[in-house]
Design a protein that fits this description.
mainly alpha, Endonuclease Iii, domain 2, 2 domains, two-stranded antiparallel ribbon, 2 strands, globular, binds iron/sulfur cluster
């Protein structure tokens, strides 16, 4: 374990970090527009690679994707991934427990349940299920939406890809078309349920769309631990699934200076990650999100914890704690 005096910071990082300006969160963000940018980027690239190497598949539990991978049929995996991503908010272990409860109420598996789904029958099976703001009634409405899509259009991927534009830099425009299309399938029910729209946010509303981007990561990316179920969307178009924990770490390592966790921040961070891997910019998401899910980067972290973190060379918190 490193002790405080063992901490080594390359001059380029120290210089760039000392160039931070302003107050509040901005004060903590390294300025990547300085003359040290290339060197800082190189250090950050190394740190991100080290972070990826630190977390293999064995660190997946209790991620909701762990529950999805309990299904072997790709059709079940896709529907389970959709629900699991939508309900991926709150404590990870509680999410996993509630998802297993949800899928146990779907006789025939998630795909069979959804394709046979009618609002009334779905709601009966799901009575009593709840995850924080959402209940079995929300799942029944979403199942009905998915049933309409699958019966009329064959697959979720086909509907999503209709919104992809040639030359698009990311999936933003496709999501802006996909989300209203889904809402429209059960417009009356969507408008009636107070928290339902929370399940289907759109970039057009400014939302970071963390959970929809998480679903896309799972079904589009081919490499472990993701599923690679969709073959017509390029991983290069994906946008980082940004929540408050990942956003905090992204700020600490200089990937954004923004204060609001929204679509603009998600796009900005993704653009900077593209510098390190243009073909697959969000491959870093799995490792970045482990820091929060596994409690390896708590809000009240300390120098001993930080010195073991693969990102410490690029993290302004480590610098501040190390110098104080
Ligand atoms: S160095 Fe510390 S504060 Fe920075 S990301 Fe790692 S654990 Fe978190």
């Amino acid at each position: 374990m490193c002790r405080r005096n063992d901490v080594h910071r390359p001059a380029a990082v120290a210089n760039a970090l000392s160039a931070t300006t302003g107050a509040g969160t901005d004060r903590m963000v390294p300025d990547l527009t300085t003359e040290n940018r290339d060197s800082v980027r190189s250090d950050l690239g190394t740190a991100l690679e080290n972070l990826c190497n630190a977390y293999d598949e064995s660190a997946l539990d209790p991620d909701p994707l762990f529950v999805v991978r309990e299904f072997s049929d790709p059709r079940d995996q896709e529907i389970a991934a959709f629900f699991s991503a939508l309900f991926a908010y709150g404590n990870a272990r509680i999410i996993a427990r509630n998802l297993r409860d949800l899928f146990s109420r779907m006789p025939g598996g998630p795909y069979g349940f959804v394709t046979a789904s009618h609002l009334s029958s779905g709601a009966r099976c799901l009575t009593g299920w709840q995850h924080r703001l959402h209940t079995g009634e929300d799942v029944a409405i979403m199942s009905s939406i998915l049933a309409h899509v699958l019966r009329r259009h064959g697959s979720l991927e086909r509907v999503f890809c209709r919104g992809l534009r040639k030359g698009a830099r990311d999936v933003g425009v496709a999501l802006e078309a996909f989300v209203p299309f889904l809402r429209e399938q059960e417009r009356h029910e969507v408008e009636r349920r107070r928290f339902f729209r929370h399940l289907l946010p759109s970039p057009a509303d400014g939302s970071a769309c963390k959970r929809l981007n998480l679903f896309l990561r799972w079904v589009v990316r081919r490499e472990s631990p993701d599923l690679g179920l969709w073959r017509t969307v390029s991983p290069s178009l994906l946008v980082l699934p940004l929540d408050t924990h990942v956003a905090r770490i992204c700020k600490q390592i200089g990937l954004t200076r923004r204060s609001t966790v929204d679509w603009k921040m998600a796009v900005e961070v993704t653009r900077k990650l593209r510098h390190f891997d243009p073909a697959d910019p969000i491959r870093f998401d799995y490792a970045l999100s482990r820091l929060g899910i596994l409690g390896h980067c708590p809000l009240k972290t300390d120098i001993n914890n930080c010195s073991r973190c693969p990102l410490h060379i690029s993290c302004v918190i480590f610098r501040e704690r190390g110098l104080s």
